[in-house]
Design brief:
Blueprint: E1 14-16, E2 22-24, E3 26-32, E4 48-55, E5 58-59, H1 60-69, H2 74-77, E6 101-106, E7 109-115, H3 123-131, E8 141-143, E9 151-153, E10 158-163, E11 167-175
GO molecular function: acetylpyruvate hydrolase activity; metal ion binding; oxaloacetate tautomerase activity
Family: Belongs to the FAH family.
Organism: Timema cristinae
């Protein structure tokens, strides 16, 4: 199975747009491995092709402008490098997606640190719910939500995120050319 997750390679660079305020959110990513539609919570994990670590980045300035104008939030979530992800972890590498530590440091300061056991919705519930509203296809990526501690990043910062002691990814932050 070939899965392309992001144009920002693990340990690449995060490029923030000029005149922006970008916030980081570390999240567990779930990569769908086989087509699923209207699946039960009990069978949902059978459709997982793997997992990844993701940084869901948001330009909050653009989100505020979009909200005020009644426009979609696309521009605040869709700039280049807005969702860097790690390599694909096969299910055997992450035996229990509901018991792994997610953490994020900015310039060495721990901002986010929680266990996926504390997630509002377990992975199986998310897959089941989404599959009842849209068909999930191989390679689809579901971000599961972020723990408390979301905050701004800026050019010159270094963002480091991890999934327990399984993997770590590091990104310098620069302004878009």
């Amino acid at each position: 199975m070939l899965v392309v997750l992001s144009s920002t390679a693990e340990d690449g660079e995060i490029e923030v747009p000029p005149n922006s305020e970008v916030h980081e959110e570390v999240e567990l990513g779930v990569v769908i491995g086989s087509r699923c539609k209207k699946v039960s919570e009990d069978s949902a994990l059978q459709y997982v092709g793997g997992y990844c670590l993701a940084l869901d980045l948001t330009d909050v300035v653009q989100i505020k402008l979009s909200r005020a104008a009644g426009l979609p939030w696309t521009w605040g979530k869709g700039f280049d490098t807005a969702c860097p992800v790690s390599r694909l972890l096969f299910p055997e590498e992450l035996k229990d997606p509901q018991d792994v530590q997610l953490w994020c440091r900015v310039n060495g300061d721990l901002r986010q640190d929680c266990n996926t056991a504390d997630m509002v919705f377990p992975v199986s519930v998310l897959i089941s719910f989404i599959s009842h509203h849209m068909t999930l296809e191989p390679g689809d990526l579901i971000l599961t939500g972020s723990p408390a501690g979301v905050g701004p990043i800026a050019p010159g910062d270094t963002v480091q995120a991890g999934l327990g002691n399984i993997l770590t990814m590091t990104f310098p932050v620069k302004i878009t050319d």
